[in-house]
């Protein structure tokens, strides 16, 4: 069955300044332009594993939009992307300094995702089995209707649903009570520690994950270099450690993790096996620069990431 991923595609401009950013300074920086967007990254990692995937997104009718869609198509992602003339494709400037990252995003065409886009895509995909929604769609007031439609449409079509919690800051700003209300009844929630804390008020990820099973049937909390934690309504609660790797760039680790988890769970793997595969993909992502996988593995197999 096909996984339908719903959310953003962006062009990321990663800026690594030589010195701290100060008003009026004439600083130097390393600048790298790479493809990104949480949903697009997860879709690319799904395709890399050989999992059939469609990305529902929107772009501007511009060179950036064409390039982003061409790359994804080349990577094996089926793209259902409406083009919006006169609106730029989304982009993000990431300023990375001393282990801290500041992001500034131009929402562009990403917020123009509409409920009809979801319906059209799901009607045209008779082999769809699972919907994965990046919560950025829900957390922006302009695209919120499309996010809510994705959750409702998945239920109507009898598809399982997962949500990536996307951003602790945006969850807080939106109001976590409202967010939990929207997410109630989903099959799987994927969150990092900050997002789990924002949603529950629990500082420790174990209690946070346990509390979140009131909202989602299954919960995965990402713990960075420490691995990830699983909790579900059947009472399971365990951690799987991360593979020790030399981290080159952690951008997109969470998005790759989600793709590993979804590939395993949608093909019937048990939770522990799924968390292990998710960790393998997360570790693969931190070993490469940028948020996307390299060329597809032959036959869709996941190459060994041991070193
Ligand atoms: P996010 O980017 O969404 O905050 P994390 O940073 O927790 O998510 O990364 C997601 C997953 O990627 C982790 O659960 C882990 O499996 C893997 N990962 C992240 N950072 C490292 C690291 N330094 N070493 C090994 N694995 C990592």
From TrEMBL:
Listed Low complexity bias regions: 290-305
Coiled-coil residues: none
Alphabetical keyword list: Kinase, Transferase
Domain Carbohydrate kinase PfkB: 3-293
GO function term, MF aspect, one: kinase activity
Disordered, as annotated region: 290-307
The keyword Transferase belongs to this UniProt entry's keyword annotation: yes
A Pfam family hit: PfkB
SUPFAM superfamilies recorded: Ribokinase-like
Entry keyword annotation includes Hydrolase: no
Name this protein carries in UniProt: Sugar kinase
Organism of derivation: Streptomyces yaizuensis
């Amino acid at each position: 069955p096909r996984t339908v991923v719903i959310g953003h595609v962006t062009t990321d401009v990663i800026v690594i300044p030589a010195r701290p950013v100060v008003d009026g300074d004439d600083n130097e920086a390393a600048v790298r332009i790479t493809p990104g967007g949480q949903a697009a990254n997860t879709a690319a990692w799904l395709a890399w594993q050989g999992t059939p995937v469609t990305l529902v997104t929107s772009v501007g009718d511009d060179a950036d939009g064409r390039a982003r869609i061409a790359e994804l198509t080349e990577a094996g992602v089926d793209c259902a992307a409406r083009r919006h003339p006169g609106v730029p494709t989304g982009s993000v400037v990431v300023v990375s300094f001393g282990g801290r990252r500041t992001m500034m995003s131009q929402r562009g065409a990403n917020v123009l995702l509409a409920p009809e886009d979801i319906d059209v895509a799901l009607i045209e995909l008779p082999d769809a089995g699972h919907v994965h929604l990046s919560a950025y769609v829900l957390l922006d007031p302009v695209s919120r209707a499309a996010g809510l439609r994705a959750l409702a449409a998945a239920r109507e079509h009898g598809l399982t649903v997962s949500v990536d919690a996307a951003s602790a800051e945006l969850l807080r700003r939106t109001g976590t009570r409202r967010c939990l209300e929207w997410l109630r009844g989903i099959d799987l929630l994927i969150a990092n520690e900050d997002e789990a804390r924002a949603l529950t008020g629990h500082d420790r990820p174990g209690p946070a994950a346990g509390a979140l099973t009131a909202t989602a049937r299954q919960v995965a909390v990402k713990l960075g270099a420490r691995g990830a934690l699983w909790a579900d309504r059947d009472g399971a609660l365990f951690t799987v450690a991360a593979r020790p790797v030399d981290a080159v760039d952690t951008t997109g680790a969470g998005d790759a993790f989600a793709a590993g988890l979804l590939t395993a769970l949608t093909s019937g793997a048990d939770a522990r096996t799924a968390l292990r595969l998710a960790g393998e993909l997360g570790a693969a992502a931190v070993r490469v620069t940028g948020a996307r996988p390299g060329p597809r593995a032959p036959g869709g197999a996941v190459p060994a990431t041991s070193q």
